[in-house]
Amino acid sequence: MSLPARPHRGLLVLITTACAAALALTGCAGGTPAAPAAPPPSAAPAAVAAPTVTVTDPWVKTAEPGMTAVFGTFSTTGTGPVTILSAQTSASPRTELHEVAMGADGAMVMRPKADGFAVEPGAPRVLAPGGDHIMIMDLASPIRPGDQVEVTLTLSDGSTVPFTALAKETSGGQENYEGGAHG
After folding, report:
1. Does residue 145 come out as left (phi exceeding 0), alpha (psi in the -120 to 50 range) or beta?
2. Number of C-alpha atoms within 13 angstroms, CB side, residue 69?
3. Strand partners of residue 86
4. Is the distance from CB of 45 to CB of 114 less than 8 angstroms?
5. DSSP 8-state class, residue 42
6. Is 107 helix (H, G, I), strand (E, B) or coil?
7. Could you tell me which residues are beta bridge partners of residue 126?
8. Which tops the pLDDT comparison, 39 or 165?
9. Is the pLDDT of residue 173 over 90?
10. Structural domains of the chain sorted by starting position, each given as residue range(s) with its CATH number in brackets
């Protein structure tokens, strides 16, 4: 007894397809096991950005040749403290971080802050006349109202933060940056 041509042909196509699928599956199963699939990009851990310092309202006190200072509010975007170790400016190659503190004789004195300015998360560090500041020494030319001074901070993690300070006239703090131990 013979089968009709149509069912036989359909059966042959079905058997051929099933065999091809079986061969494909068994061929993949042999040899070395496949490496696990990499997680999709969305499942990869997020890169942690290094903490940095942001500067708001930066300004520099106008000055004739000699000395002046940079002020502003410094905040960190990280979860831990960051220390500003040094600063460089376009106004002079000689720049120091300074604090105003009580001297041995009971008078307020301006002095270098060797360990830098710590900036704590959630507690902005304000540099202001009469307090902490970035001292610019040995000015070769005057800084006039409206001038811009480029400043680059170096942080404790080795990164740098550039910003521009606008020159403003002020009598705040009543500092005299001429003379004394740094003049």
Report:
1. beta
2. 29
3. 154
4. no
5. G
6. coil
7. 73
8. 165
9. no
10. 53-182 (2.60.40.1890)
